[in-house]
UniProtKB/TrEMBL annotation:
<dbReference type="Pfam" id="PF00230">
    <property type="entry name" value="MIP"/>
</dbReference>
<dbReference type="InterPro" id="IPR051883">
    <property type="entry name" value="AQP11/12_channel"/>
</dbReference>
<keyword id="KW-0732">Signal</keyword>
<feature type="signal peptide">
    <location>
        <begin position="1"/>
        <end position="19"/>
    </location>
</feature>
<dbReference type="InterPro" id="IPR016697">
    <property type="entry name" value="Aquaporin_11/12"/>
</dbReference>
<feature type="transmembrane region" description="Helical">
    <location>
        <begin position="230"/>
        <end position="247"/>
    </location>
</feature>
<keyword id="KW-1133">Transmembrane helix</keyword>
<dbReference type="GO" id="GO:0016020">
    <property type="term" value="C:membrane"/>
</dbReference>
<dbReference type="InterPro" id="IPR000425">
    <property type="entry name" value="MIP"/>
</dbReference>
<dbReference type="GO" id="GO:0015267">
    <property type="term" value="F:channel activity"/>
</dbReference>
<dbReference type="GO" id="GO:0005737">
    <property type="term" value="C:cytoplasm"/>
</dbReference>
<keyword id="KW-0812">Transmembrane</keyword>
<protein>
    <recommendedName>
        <fullName>Aquaporin</fullName>
    </recommendedName>
</protein>
<dbReference type="InterPro" id="IPR023266">
    <property type="entry name" value="Aquaporin_11"/>
</dbReference>
<keyword id="KW-0472">Membrane</keyword>
<comment type="similarity">
    <text>Belongs to the MIP/aquaporin (TC 1.A.8) family. AQP11/AQP12 subfamily.</text>
</comment>
<dbReference type="InterPro" id="IPR023271">
    <property type="entry name" value="Aquaporin-like"/>
</dbReference>
Amino acid sequence: MSADVAASLSVLAMVVVVSEVTRRLLIGARADTGLAAYLGELVSTFQLCCCTHELKLLSDAGGIEPQLALTLTYLAAVIHGLTFRGAIGNPSGVLVHAYHARFPAGCALRRIACQFGAAGAARGAVRLVWGIGLSELHVRHRLLGFHCSSPVRAPLTKAAGVELVCAFAVQTVITCTQRLEEKFRVHAVAAAITTMVYAGGSVTGAVLNPAVAFSTQFLCTGPSFLENCLIYWLSPVLGMLSSVLLSDKVSAVLWRTSSSPRLPLSSKKAA
């Protein structure tokens, strides 16, 4: 294992441990108030964005093998799923919950605001960590002024379509695994995310999360702000909501089919 990879893994572990301790302390102290859910969103989205920043740097500039990058993506997704404790960490997911009336509109907006606030804080926090120079990779990145390039390698319509389809696929897996035990479900969702990163990563990075995209992509050279909004904000939202609408439609059809009255066998023979 190279020194750059070891340093990045140390940063990832530090982020997860610090976030978990903070989450337990803050949520435990505010368990009897309405702030616990919003604090959970803040800390969990911060954790998600910081880890994505480090993985993106390691993948883009660290020269690691694609297989290792995908393995780290899968492991990170599993860890996030096991530690979020009810937090969503994705504005698209909040909108899905609001659509199903699990959140009132005000609660959904406040959760999304927390997620974007945490995304902005994560962007500043990782630069402070990189500025310490824990590895040669961090030092080089600091000397380049923390410059990054957009992963978008396709025309606008194709890039938007890739994010939409990838978000649709992941949300479909999330919906279909709702009844699984959490310890099994996180692996299914992590596998879906990793598959989408493999399929669409070379086109857009397969970010699938508007808050993470705001933190990791919007300051990179490449598409304009409006193009980023279309690719990384609108497309994932449309993809996830399309999956939910289709799932609801299919469920309704199956329910009507299974609950439709059936004639007794004797009646059928008589007919």
